[in-house]
Amino acid sequence: MLQNNPELKSKIDQLWNKFWSGGISNPLTAIEQITYLLFMKRLDELDQKRQADAEWTGEKYTSKFEGIWVPPEYRTKLSGRERALELIDIRAQDERKYGIDKRTLRWSEFKRMQAEEMLQHVQGKVFPFLKDLNGAESNFTHHMKNAVFIIPKPALLVEAVKTIDEIFEVMERDSQENGQAFQDIQGDVYEFLLSEIATAGKNGQFRTPRHIIKLMAELVQPQLGHKIADPACGTGGFLLGAYQYIVTQLAIKAGTKNLEPDEDGFVRTSVAAALTEKAQTILQESLYGYDIDATMVRLGLMNLMMHGIDEPHIDYQDTLSKSYNEEAEYDIVLANPPFTGSIDKGDINENLQLSTTKTELLFVENIYRLLKKGGTACVIVPQGVLFGSGGAFRTLRQLLVERCDLKAVITLPSGVFKPYAGVSTAILLFTKVWGAKDKVAKPATEHVWFYEMVADGYSLDDKRTKQEGYGDLQDIIAKYHARDAAADADRTTNCFMVSRTEIADEKNNFDLSLSRYKEDVFEEVHYDAPGVILDRLIQAEVGDVDETELAKVQSGIVRELLALKEMVG
């Protein structure tokens, strides 16, 4: 979408530049502060729209900005034994002493204030109100508890508010002119903002490119009613990818026509056009994410909320630790877990049996444990997991082959995660068949499908410029869903199938690297004799000259070529 709207992209770039020049250079900090402002703006607009709709239909609606708000720190602490009349009196006293008129907390109200007054008002009143918005029991409120509004300069806040207003004007116009749901445009804008995290590569946050997420969703094909998780969710990209895939399929089933592929060849459609109230309710209870970075948890929550998921289930949790005990809970797991090193051995969940502290191995084992029987995972791992010689590496691969139906191993080119990482990675796709405590009556995997991705539709350098076409993305999807052990036997091509017995034999020892099984084709090339090549080079220098004239040449490149010709006969 943004590629087709240079004005909108330019405004977003301006917003980033304002924060950068205003002294907030850490992209994670900047995106968090921008997000709070976007929330304030969107909250006001949605509330006004719902008020107008209620007046038109005659339905009752209570505005979020109606009445008096008392900050939590000024509320009288209750014993729980107060009678109804006492409670009314206590609240009335609190409101008289500390109450703030909620109308003053609207974006449309405070944006008209002078710079200094606006900064103090937003810092001291609007932002605390935002943190308290959904009530004490809300997941959002819980994770916003330690959030801080740190825009330091009044001028920066004024400029940011002005630019966000301009962005919303462009989004509204784009929505009216092109028929795209406003919420979808807003979601795309937010995704574009989040992409700056990847550009900067702060805190080791590997943001998975959107087209790779879409590819993995197409491979797994999540359905409405599936319980879906990402145990290292970051900004919630995989959960959003699953959500958008399901919404699109619902829209197609409902008869939505004229759906156009995006720049990567994937068909995705608007939230508004696809979801019934019932489907929305089911989806709200379907998506679960966890992360160990509090900032990323907040960004993940807000990312999903910006896309229309009102109460996302994203929590602060180390899913490898002893404090996390979920098992056999999910139908789908989509993930790109961190693979940057080791964790403290003493904190590893005792249910994880691999004798290692390497996160890339422990996460895969944990994902296996999180799956219900019959559940499917699609996971990005460093390619070292496919062939590592250590005992834990081999044990994990054996688990994937024998206790799971290991459907596919797709190797990715090393440039996919540039500019912030050049590591070679692969996608593992597997379905859980046998539980961790089950006796394996028969190994679950029959054949593994291998695919070597060469191109993903973008340049593989630091710029990651969009190339013509879709690279291998759509070819992978088509060939994966049409895979056949008999037909996919040619190992000289970029995709083929290998039997479990061959993978598990003594020679291969559960090695899952594509190069182990691919057959290289050596093409015989015939070259001209050296004398013929030298004649051609001499002719290129002097043209058609007889040997008598050539013999007179005493120096230069021609003389050297003649000397070489004499040497080779």
The CATH topology of the largest domain is: Rossmann fold
What level of helicity do the residues show? 40-55%
Secondary-structure class: alpha/beta
State the CATH architecture of the largest domain.
3-Layer(aba) Sandwich
Note the beta-strand portion: 5-15%
Show the helix and strand layout.
Layout: H1 6-21, H2 27-57, E1 68-69, H3 84-98, E2 100-101, H4 107-110, H5 115-131, H6 139-144, H7 154-178, H8 182-200, H9 210-220, E3 228-230, H10 237-253, H11 271-274, H12 277-284, E4 287-291, H13 294-306, E5 313-316, E6 330-335, H14 359-370, E7 371-382, H15 384-387, H16 391-402, E8 404-412, E9 425-432, E10 447-452, H17 473-481, E11 495-499, H18 500-504, H19 514-517, H20 530-542, H21 547-551, H22 556-567
Parallel strand pairs: 3-4, 3-6, 4-5, 6-7, 8-10
Antiparallel strand pairs: 1-2, 7-9, 8-9, 10-11
Overall description:
The chain has 569 residues and is an alpha/beta fold. Helix content is 46%, strand content 11%. It is built from 22 helices and eleven strands. The chain has a nine-stranded mixed beta sheet. The longest helix is centred in the N-terminal third of the chain and has 31 residues, at 27-57. The model is unreliable at 199-205 (pLDDT under 50).
